[in-house]
Amino acid sequence: MHVIVATDGSRQSLAAAKHLKSFADPTKVTEISVVAVIRPLASVAFADDLSEGKIDGSFRDAAQSAVDTIAAVFEGWGPKVNKRIRSGSAANEIIKAAKQYDAGLVVVAAGGRGLSDSVLVGSTAQRVQHYAPCPVLVVRPAPKPKRRRS
């Protein structure tokens, strides 16, 4: 099975990749494509949470760094790992990649990046979930610990 792992450069997308690895059977996953999507006319830069401020270049450089970081999660795990950067609408490009590579699963993070966290949860992850040609694993952020009142 070919698995698409989408990244927007957020820590949540890294957590989603690690979550997949924690339960998936590497003998059943034949290939993984780590996909980042650059919005060419975006007013907000590609998220840069994974490179720890090492990127001073373009959106593409930041996307490449994010793809490299996510791909490293799967090094030595078994399946072949492809690194792919696409351009366009994030949801549309993830869906197109799933169709193009005949994916058996798409992994996306909910609550990654965007104009606000609610925009991504309400748009990218939700649109992929509704329109992808295969099952979609939406990995939600871990709940924040509740503060005790004294």
Report on this structure:
The protein has helices at 11-23, 59-73, 90-100, 117-131, and strands at 2-7, 31-38, 80-87, 105-109, 136-139. The chain has 150 residues and is of the alpha/beta class. It has a 5-stranded parallel sheet with strand order 3-2-1-4-5, sandwiched between helices. Helix 4 (117-131) links the parallel strand 4 (105-109) and strand 5 (136-139). The protein is globular, with a radius of gyration of 15 Å. Mean pLDDT is 84; it is low at 113-122.
Notable characteristics:
150 residues; alpha/beta; five-stranded parallel beta sheet; 4 helices; 5 strands; 21% strand; globular
Mean pLDDT: 84
Strand content: 15-25%
Helix residue percentage: 25-40%
Shape label? globular
Q: Terminal Cα separation, in Å? A: 51 Å
Question: Main sheet, how many strands, which sense, barrel?
Answer: 5 strands, parallel
